[in-house]
């Protein structure tokens, strides 16, 4: 997926904070737990229908419901795991999974990094120490790392290697 140049090394790989997927997984777990609750009200709704037909159709639709939710859970995990930011000694690579068979890969050279801004909003982001890392480049483009953990460490690493790249390029001119 990522081909490194000669003498280029991966310094840091950042995935989204665990709280982001935990929040989404919690919603799916609640939806799965709603199925048994709905089954307790089934006899009230079905009344005089054939019990065998009701049981068979209920099992069928309940199975499909749970399978769809489990598929959704898998897709959420895959999106969480495959979304990453790779910081190397030469560049920052943003890999964003956009569905099952689609991804977008962007990169910026560290030598073009001008400024880094950290944005932490709200109580949860403050306590769990995650937020946005905005990277301003020499062009007008802004690179945003959303829901990233260890923001200050990532900022320090990026700035350290960005300064090093600029010094290397300055000495080569």
UniProtKB/TrEMBL annotation:
One protein family per Pfam: bPH_2
Residue ranges occupied by any YdbS-like PH domain in the UniProt entry: 86-150
Keywords annotated in UniProt: Membrane, Transmembrane, Transmembrane helix
Tree of life domain: Bacteria
TM annotation in the entry: 25-46, 58-77
Protein name as annotated: PH domain-containing protein
């Amino acid at each position: 997926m990522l081909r490194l140049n000669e003498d280029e090394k991966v310094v840091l790989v950042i995935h989204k904070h665990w709280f982001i997927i935990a929040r989404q997984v919690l919603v799916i777990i609640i939806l799965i737990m709603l199925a048994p609750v709905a089954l307790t009200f089934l006899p009230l709704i079905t009344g005089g229908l054939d019990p065998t037909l009701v049981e068979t159709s209920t099992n069928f639709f309940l199975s499909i419901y749970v399978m769809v939710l489990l598929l959704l859970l898998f897709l959420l995990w895959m999106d969480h795991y495959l979304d990453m930011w790779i910081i190397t000694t030469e560049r920052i690579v943003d890999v964003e999974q956009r569905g099952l068979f689609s991804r977008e890969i962007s990169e910026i050279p560290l030598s073009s990094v001008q400024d880094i801004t950290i944005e932490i909003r709200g109580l949860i982001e403050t306590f769990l120490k995650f937020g946005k890392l905005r990277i301003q480049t020499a062009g007008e483009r802004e690179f945003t790392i959303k829901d990233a953990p260890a923001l200050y460490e990532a900022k320090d690493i990026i700035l350290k290697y960005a300064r090093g790249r600029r010094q290397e390029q300055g000495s080569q001119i």
